[in-house]
Write the structure tokens for this entry.
Amino acid sequence: MQRNDLPHLFLSEKTGNIVYLNENETKHIRVLRLRNNDLIFCIDGKGYKYLVRILETGKSYTRGEIIEEHFAKSSSRMLTLGFSPPSLNRTTWLIEKSIEIGIDFFQPIFFERSLTRNFPSLEKYESKMRECLKQCRRAYMPVILPVKKFHHFFPVGYDYILFASIHGEKLPEIEGNNILLLVGPEGDFTDKELQQINDFPNSFAVKLSENRLRLETACISLLSNVKAQFA
């Protein structure tokens, strides 16, 4: 098996050159029929990636020895997705696909027309986020920021604020390293919210399609278009 094809698993603990994997990751090891002395990659979601030799697989844990250590420097460009959370299943799908594409921060926001007024605890998404990180082999775990009400949301420090709008324009050439992508609820922003967004520094309305898009489709479309500029 080539190195690039080695399984990527999430470590739960590191002591010196020894790493431990929890019960859930150990189940993956059994499914993959890995044995002692087999090699895997372990990631921690904080930039580190370890080439590990399996030493022992117990009923609820796996112990391994670090052979090599790699550290991926974080990108200077950070993308934040500000969105109105849909249902739990749709939000889970949105988080999964956004991680694959390359989001850095999630900012759930309750707008006036948001249909959902309840955002589950972060533990609801933690398992899925870890699975996505392993699948796409990213070095850093994205962060879900505390939910905000829009009238209490005052974005600062962003070089660009790009918001989805049927009345927007083609995505401009983007400069800067800290970018906020903003997508409203199914019923769109209210006129008052639009005025507030337009008053944000460096805000720009982006038209994604001639068609009416579902919330999560608009999020993925906007994110994909922005990431394509940086590819």
